[in-house]
Amino acid sequence: MQKILVILMLLFLFNGNMVLAAGAKDGVAVDQELLKPAAWLDKQNGDVIIMDSQEINAMNKLMLSDKMPDLQSYPVYISGEKIKNLIQEYEFDSDLYVNGKQLTSGQIAALTADCNLAAVAQETKVKYGIVAQRTNLRSLPTGLKAFSEPGDNEFDVWQETAVDPAEPVIILHFSKSKEYVYIQMRNYRGWLPAKAVALADRDTWLKYVFPGKFAIVTGKLLRLNENNAKWAFQMGSRIPTEGKRLLLPARDANGNLKIVKSSVSYGDVLHDGYLPYTTNNLIKQAFRFLGNPYGWGGLQESVDCSSFLADVYRTVGVELPRNADEQEEAYTGTAMDFSAYGGNEKLNLVNNLPIGSALFMPNHVMLYLGSKKDRPYIIHALGSYGARTESGEYQRVPIMKVIVSDLSLKTRRGNSFLEELSSAQSYR
Known about the structure:
Blueprint: H1 2-14, H2 16-23, E1 24-25, E2 28-29, H3 53-62, E3 77-79, H4 80-87, E4 97-98, E5 101-102, H5 105-114, E6 123-125, E7 127-131, E8 135-138, E9 146-147, E10 159-163, E11 168-174, E12 180-184, E13 189-193, E14 197-200, H6 202-209, E15 214-217, E16 221-226, E17 229-234, E18 238-242, E19 245-251, E20 257-263, E21 270-272, H7 279-287, H8 305-314, H9 324-329, E22 336-337, H10 343-351, E23 358-361, E24 364-372, E25 375-388, E26 394-406, H11 417-420, E27 423-425
Antiparallel strand pairs: 1-2, 3-6, 4-5, 4-9, 7-11, 7-14, 8-10, 11-12, 12-13, 15-18, 15-21, 16-17, 18-19, 19-20, 22-27, 23-24, 23-27, 24-25, 25-26
């Protein structure tokens, strides 16, 4: 009997599920060694330059799109019809809850009125602005929060993305209340609070679009104070420099740009220019967010799955679209479609991807770390996963943070993340 037990234990130990259980729970890594960047650094080729600045710029141009235009080439004049079409891209969903109560027709009418479509001229000369404080880009000109469920307080569907200071924007329209401006930024468009944007002339604005010298935020969050003014910058933020000073944007009493010069101090959280584009730099940057709260649309001064990926890649100069579906569809020439593969064939493809690749599944993106014993691991900002109940059904398990996991992690449908993978991008 003891022999049988020993044999069973050995079989269990060497079964893939037991290997997983030793380092993970439900697929979420718990082995402390796997939670350190050192476990994933490539000692042989990890510091080899993947692409130089010219190659990166060429790839960035390939990823330009309607929502991610070349700001320098953006028209100076834009038709009223075009502006109306952009603003009306957002379609109202009446099945939403605001302050715990279902959205009313009156609220929809008020929000529609504040979009101020009647005031759109036949042709508009665009204005230029620099974001002066970390703020939120909204679907509509409002600070009200809307949720799909009355008890939800985390997934505000009107939250598009957080925007950091020093971000150049094109101002297309003003809300009726004048409290919001409709803008186009490098990879998104929507409504920003007017008080967070400083107006600038085009020449000054271009210095933020294409700064000759700049610092890149490499820490997960950088806070700066100067002359009683405060700024918060998330990883990947780009701040123009002049000599040994940061050119920090502020807004004067008339709403115009006022540049505050602050002594620059490079180190662990701020780098002179982009980091070299290497595998190891991607891994090191990704792990800076480990354990951070999941921040839908950049809320909680943190990241969701797609901003996590975009922030990490921007530290090396790669400009990604904002949302996961756009990141997946971006043309780079290195995309891999998994739709025709399954089982071991898909597993083998994943295990042979370059470290740092983006893995996509419906509504989610993850950064590939590499494999341990042919088991692929990822680091990602995750809202929830699925776990089997005693009845055999799968229920949502909220996790709401940046984690390391393997691809055996389940969805609420009971499929593994590996099964749900749709494609990969290597951005190189």
